[in-house]
Each structure stands twice: as C-alpha cells, then as structure tokens.
Amino acid sequence: MSLSSIVIDRIQKEGALSFHDFMEMALYYPGEGYYTSAREKLGAPGDFYTSPYLTSLFGEMLAGQLEEMWIALGRVPFTIVEYGAGTGLLCRDILRRLSTNRALYDHLHYYIIEKSDTMRERERALLSDKVRWVGSIGEIGPVTGCVLSNELVDNLAVHQVIMAEELMEVFVGYDEGGGFREVLRPAGEELRDYLGQLGVKMQPGYRGEINLEATKWIQEVAAGMGKAFVMTIDYGCSSSVLYGKKEGTLVCYHEHRLNHSPFSFIGEQDITSHVNFSALDYWGRKGGLECCGYTTQAHFLQGLGLAHHLRQMETAGLKDLDPATRQRRLWQLRTLLLDMGQKFKVLIQRKGTGWAPLSGMQFAQGLG
C-alpha cells in the first residue's frame, strides 16, 4: 500500500488529520516516509543539497568552533551530540579535523540521535568506531560539550494556521471525488499560547506555520545538558521577520524543484518550513539556556577564518585544477557562502558555563 493510501485510510477511519499529523506521516512514517525510506535525497540524484554535501570545508570549520568550546570548558573530556546526522558527512568531516588535536580527540565522545533506520545504516557504513547511536539525549547523561544540529529543525512537523476572525488551524480531509482538502477548525490553546508568549500578532488573512516540536526539542536538549553549548544551523529568521511576512514559508522539494503542494508526491518529497529562531531562544531560556549569539552562516564562517582557509586551498593547488573541477569547486563555495550563506542562520546557546568568546559569533546580530 502506498503512503498516500495509508494516509487516506487513516483519514477515513479517524476523520480529518491536523496538518502536523499529515506532515509527520509524510516525512517519518516507518519505511514509507520521505526520511524513513531508502530514496536518495541528496545531490544530483536527490532533491536538494546540504552544506556538508557541497564541501568538507563546512565540517572542518565547524570543528574549529567545537575546539574553542572545548577550550572554554577547560579542556575536559568533550561530548558531541548530533541530531539528525543524515548521511554522516558532517560527522565524518568534524572527526577528521578534530583527530589532529589528540588532547581533544582521545577523550572525545560522539553520539548521533537519528530517528530514521535507513539513515542510521548509511551513517554506520561511513563513520568510525568513535561514534555511538542513541535514541535520546536522556540516554547519555548530563552532556559536557556541544549539542549540534544542521538542517534538523526545519523538518520537524508543523501546525498550519490561518488568522480569520479568530486563529484557525488547518486540518486535512479527503473526498473520493475531489481528493485531499483542507478543513479549518478553531486553533487550540497551545497554538494561541505560543503566539502570545512570543508577542506575535498575526494580520487578518495571514497563513503560516507554528512549530511546537521545535520548542519541545530545545527544552529536551536543555534538560540533557550539564556544562555545554547548543549549535543550531538552519534556514529561518526571527519571529518579527517570520510573522511579518504576507504568508508562511512552507515549501516542498522534489527532484530539485520547489513546489507548494504538500499533498503531491506523498513520501517522495521533502516538506519544510523556516525555523523561528526567536522561539528557540525564548524556550531555550525557559530551560536554562543563555544566548551566545545569532548570525548568518556566511558571517559565522567568516568569523571562523574562512578567508584563511580559502587562501590555503589556493596554495594547495585549487588554481592548478582542471577547468571543470575548478568550476565545480567554485560553485560549491559560492553556494555555501552566497546562497546558503545568507538564508541559513546559526544560533549558539550555552548552559552551566560563563561567557566565552566564540570566533563564529564575531559578527553576531540581534534576534529582534
């Protein structure tokens, strides 16, 4: 039975599903969801590119920030917890860079929290014995080190809402003759409270998303930390920018084509929406986290010495590559810095440790 048929069968038995529950099924239904199936997702044969897929330089520079965190914590045994490691490329590149620092690497623990069995197997095939897989941060004990995620939060299932005379939530129904259809119901208290705590007032007619999963995630992370940092990398913005738009940010990616049809290609396309970094900061503070800084990915990489790394690459022979390879490398770096570099943001939070200068946050900006 196709995933579309499974969704339809559930609707017929239970009634209309919240968009959140529909999106959760489309992305994570066991064996059939987009992220739980064996379908290729990255690169030319997939649906999108990620920064680690473009170049190993991304992971190597993140490793430099992790080294600074290790120093700030007093050079004690260091733990990295990566949520949603995908194909494992980021982990591989981080470990390769950190392996040159034996004082850190010999006492390093690296855990991956991955809900997809398919992706977990791909990660195991690529990564070293240094890595362990766990089901939750609670299995590790108080973390001393850094909790890391790259393009995780944008793929958590969201609630869709519309501001009419009152706040309405979008549900998904199905008719035999007309297919999937939207059903509007008054939004529950949890959704209204989310907007109220953030001081958000939606304009009449606004349609957008609320990511309650993200607030639960950051509080779960905070509860699992001892003396540690959280580094969240994703595309998104602050509350004022996100809800100041005319409409929400939910989009789908299928074979490198963007569309706004979540009811098409169910289980075969990515569904994503922008991260509300103000919410991560706000609910993180409620969990005991303090904000170290927030900036664009481009400024983050510049603060970590991107220009120096590029000069090293040039010296190492980038200019001597054949034209096609050189062109590909330049395209990868341009995408990382100019396209992803402005759309993607980096938020670093801390718990149990005092302020420490972090190079990646030299050009930090306010969340607003």
Description:
By secondary structure, the protein is α/β, with parallel strands linked by helices. The chain has one domain: Rossmann fold (3-Layer(aba) Sandwich), CATH 3.40.50. The protein has 14 helices and 16 strands. The protein has helices at residues 3-14, 19-28, 51-54, 57-72, 89-98, 102-105, 117-126, 189-198, 212-223, 239-242, 277-286, 297-303, 306-315, 323-343; strands at 17-18, 78-83, 108-113, 131-134, 143-150, 159-163, 167-175, 179-186, 207-210, 225-237, 251-254, 257-259, 270-272, 275-276, 290-296, 344-351. The strands form three sheets. Strands 2, 3, 4, 5, 10, 14, 15 and 16 form an eight-stranded mixed β-sheet that branches. Strands 1, 6, 7, 8 and 9 form a five-stranded antiparallel β-sheet that branches. A three-stranded antiparallel β-sheet has the order 12-11-13. A hairpin with a 3-residue loop joins β6 and β7. α4 packs across α5 (89-98), α9 (212-223) crosses α11 and α12 packs across α14. The longest helix is centred in the last third of the chain and has 21 residues, at 323-343. The radius of gyration is 21 Å and the shape is globular. The model has no long low-confidence stretch (mean pLDDT 90).
How would the global form be characterised? globular
Radius of gyration, CA atoms, in whole angstroms: 21 Å
Q: What is the C-level CATH assignment?
A: Alpha Beta
Low-confidence stretches: none
